Amino acid sequence: MATSNTTLLPPLSPPSSDSDSDSGTSSRQHQHTDLSSTIFKSYLELTGHQSSPQHQDLIKIQSFLTSSRSGALSCLICLERIKPTDPTWSCSSRCFAVFHLLCIQSWAHQSSNLAAARAASRAATLNDDTLRWHCPKCRIEYPKSQTPKYYYCFCGKLENPPHDPWILPHSCGEICGRPLTYNCGHECLLLCHPGPCPSCPKLVKTKCYCGATEDVRRCGFKDFSCKGVCRKTLACGSHRCGEICHDGDCPMCRKKGVYKCQCGKVELERECCERIFRCENPCQKLLGCGRHVCERGCHKGNCGECPLQGKRTCPCGKRVYEGMACDVAVPLCGATCDKLLSCGFHRCPERCHRGPCIETCRTVVTKSCRCGSARKQIPCYQDLTCERKCQKVRDCGRHACKRRCCDGDCPPCSEICDRRLRCRNHKCPAPCHRGACSPCPLMVMISCSCGETHFEVPCGTETEQKPPKCPKRCRVAPLCTHRLICKPHKCHYGACPPCRLICDEEYSCGHKCKLRCHGPRPPALPEFTLKPKKKKSSHEAEHIPGTLCPPCPELVWRSCVGNHIGAERMMICSNPAEFSCDNLCGTLLSCGNHYCTKICHALKSDSKSYSSVLAESCEECNLPCQKERSPPCPHPCPLVCHPGECPPCHSLIKRACHCGAMVHALKCIYYNSLDEREQVAVRSCGGPCHSFDFGATESYQTVRIYVQRSVIVVNVHHLTSAPKRLLFGADARP
C-alpha cells in the first residue's frame, strides 16, 4: 500500500543586508531546499546506538552525498578535487572511497610490481592471481586481475556515465539495485549513489530473539528484543535462561548444586556449567591383572587392562619377550641402543638402557655458518654463527640488513618510514618500504559553527574546499557596540563576518568616527577554521577589525601659532602640525609700551601645548623711558622702558624769591606737586624785599647753600663783617 506524505516548507525570510550569501535574488529563486538531513533523520533514529554498523553506514552515505553535492570530493592519492567529468573508481569492499581512475590504476600497477619484485628477490614464483594490491584507504586487498580498467557509475551498471547537471555526478540516475547487506534477499531502492547501501526498508514479519513475540518491522532492523524473559533451555538441559530477550547464545548456567568428580571421590558445591570436573587425586583403582593400580588421574569409566601384559620388548626394542608376568622387569639386551637422537642425523651410542636417550648429540661434525663465510668442527648440537654483518639492502631499498651471519633471506625492514605524506600534516607510520607511501587515511570534518552542515574530506585537502553553507542563523553573539542593532546573519564556517554599520564612536575632539565598525569580533572556533591561503591583497584594508578608531580625519580651520586674524589654514583635526605666518608677532612686550617685532611665533607662557620648536620668548625692550611724568616734569625718567608709573623725580630745581634776594633749591616732585598758589607761597622769602647781587660785589667771599628740613639755607660770608644767614622756605624766620 503506497502512502504519500505532503510536507509544507516554511516561508523563506528575506535576506538581510548583512547576510553572508554570495548569490543574488535570481539565483536564490532556483535553489533547492536541502532535505538530506530530514531524510536521514528518521533512518538515524531507527539505528539506535551510534556505534552500530547501520548507523555508521548511514553517516557515511550522508557524508558522501553532501561532499558530492558541494563538490568537495577529493582523491586520496593525488589530493586533487574530483571534478564531475573525471573518470572515477570507488572501493566497494569497506571504505567506499572515491579515487581518480588513472590514480587508482597507477597505484594498483605500482603495488603489484613491487610485490613481484619482492618475490623475485626471494626466488619465489608468482602469477597474476597471487599478486595483490590494496585499497589506499581501507587496505582491503584485491587480486591483480581486478585492477580497474573502465569507468563505471556507482552502482556498476553503466559504463562511462555522461555528465548531467541534474543528477549526482558519476551516477547513472537509475535505481541502484545492488543486493543489500546481511543477505536479506532485497535490493537497494535508492538512486545510484556513492557509499554503502542503507539498510533494507521493506516491511517483513519477524520474531524477537527469543521467538516469543512476532511483529512487522523494517527488514534492515528486523532483529529486536521483546524485553521479556528469554526462557530458552540452556546447554545443561536442566534449566532455562533468565536473561532479558537477547541476541546470540544464552549465557552459561549459573545455578549452584552439589556435584561429584568423575571418579566419585570428591563432592563440591559448584555452578551448573562447571558440574563436570576432575579432582586432584590419582585414580588408584586395581587393574585387571590384580597386581598394579591405575596411575591415571581422576577419570570416569573403566581403567582398562594392565599395560605390562602380553608381548614385551627390551628398552631398545631389539629383543622380544613373550609370556612374561606383568610384575617382572624386562631384562636389558646388552646391544647398542641405536635410537635416533633429537638431531635427526645420529643415533644413540649407549648400550640398551632404560629411560630417555641423551638430549644433546655430541658427535663432532664440520659445519658451515648460515652465511657460508666460515667452516668449523663443533659438536652436532651447537650452531655455528660468524660475526660478519650482512650488507645486503633490504626490500625497502633504503637500509642495509646489518644482521649477523645472515643466510641471505633478509627480514623485512623494521625501521619506521617516517616520510612526510602528501597531506603535509602527518608522517608515514608504516615500516620502511619501497615505493610511494600510502595516502593519509585520516579524514577532516568541515562543518559550520552549529554543526548541522558538514562533510568529510581527505586530510590535506581542507584548504582547497569551499566552506559549507548552512541555512540557519549564526549563534555567535557580536562583540562590537552594535550588538543590539546588528542584523543577524546565516551560520557559517570560520570567523563571523565584520559588522557593516558605521562606527559612530565619539573622539575626544567632539567629532565621530565615520568608518565601518572595527570593534572586536568573536574568534573562530579552531575546529571550524580553514587554514589561510597565501593571497596578495590588491588594496589595503580600510580598517583592521578589533582595533581602536583611527585618528580623527575631519578638516578644521586652525590659527597660526601667533593667533593672528586672517591667517587660518584648513588642516586635519588629528594632525598636531603647527605653522607660523609671515606677519610680525605684535605681542605687547613686558614693558607694556612697545610690541614684539619678531616673525610670528608661539609664546612659552601660552596655555596652548605648542611644541618647543616654535615656542620662544618675545624680545626684551631696551629703549629709554619716554613716558610723561606725573605730575609733569621737565626731567626725563632715568630708567629703561618699564611698565607702570615712573618713579618720583628727586632732581633739584632753583627758584628765586619774588624780591630776588633769595634762591630756593627745591625737589622737583615736591615743587611740581604744589598748585600755583602754593608755589607762589613757597618762593616767598617772607622778609622785606631786598635785592642782592652776588656777582656784582666783591665784599662777599663765599656763599654756602644747603637744605635743612625742606628749607634752603644760604650762608653769606663777608670779608669785613660777621657772616649772615639767609633762610628760604615756608617755615623760614629771619
UniProtKB/TrEMBL annotation:
Q: Which InterPro entries match?
A: NFX1_fam, Znf_NFX1, Znf_RING
Q: By its UniProt entry, which PROSITE patterns does this protein fall under? A: ZF_RING_2 (PS50089)
Ranges for domain RING-type come to 75-139
The UniProt gene name for this protein comes to LOC113730358
Note the SUPFAM superfamilies from the entry: RING/U-box
- What protein family does this chain belong to? Belongs to the NFX1 family.
- SMART domains named in the record: ZnF_NFX (SM00438)
Can you say what this protein is called? NF-X1-type zinc finger protein NFXL2 isoform X2
User: Region Disordered: which residues?
Assistant: 1-34
Compositionally skewed regions (Low complexity) per UniProt: 1-27
Q: Which UniProt keywords apply?
A: Metal-binding, Repeat, Zinc, Zinc-finger
Asked if the keyword Repeat belongs to this entry, the reply reads yes
